[in-house]
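REQUEST ID: PR-0412
SUBMITTED BY: lab tech R.K.
PRIORITY: routine
TASK: structure prediction, single protein chain
INPUT:
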Amino acid sequence: MSLSDAVGLPGLPRDADGPVFAEPWQAQAFALAVELNRRGAFAWSEWADTLAAVLREATVRGTPDDGSHYYEHWLVALERICLAKGLTDLGTLDGRTNAWEAAYRRTPHGKPVELQVGEDTPLTPG
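STATUS: complete
OUTPUT:
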């Protein structure tokens, strides 16, 4: 997939120069999907179908995307396709999510959120 292919995605926030991102994590999620596709983890058509399904689900829930939540949907689609393809498992994904949430909560406003050494490993229950 090329960046020009991605720019053609419906709903993708963009300007004349290409995709635009309000937060660094959005650019990272975008880049991760593009890189996983480049490495052959999934076909771009699979990605587009997964993202379209997530966007349809939001519409069915009564919260169609107006562009302000696009990358949240992108992230859900990324998690979903990575789980479906066996690129990660639910325990690892949940552990990483919990670690980032903990890092976010302890980070002072205006400072970058960073994981501490060892936080990037899955968290085990109990």
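NOTES: Strands lie at 14-15, 18-19.
REVIEWED BY: pending
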